[in-house]
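Handout, page 2. Input:
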Amino acid sequence: MVNRRGMSRMGCLIPLLLVSVVAYFGMPAAEAYFDFYRFKDAMGNEARFASTQTDQHIVVRLAALADSLQMPPEAERIMIERTTSLITISSEYEVVVKLPLNKERVIRFNPMVRSRL
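Output:
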């Protein structure tokens, strides 16, 4: 028989349980932030090629992406401002994240991208 030190077999179980609980309850917030970054990246791509596209075409494409990501309807309200040398694409929306104990938190997102034409 192997001599073992008096260490518990449950030593790793409690930290693992805590990490899994935090991950389970943090997933909705992480998903909201991940969608925000995908949306902002798409805005950046549209801004880079804005010199060859109309504002309406950009709005339609970004609204379709917001719909496919199941973002709130406010995210589909995309504002575009053009000058002779600069384009600004922005949106504003809120996501309600459900927390434990029937609590909710509202996270406000304001993705905005500027690019030279």
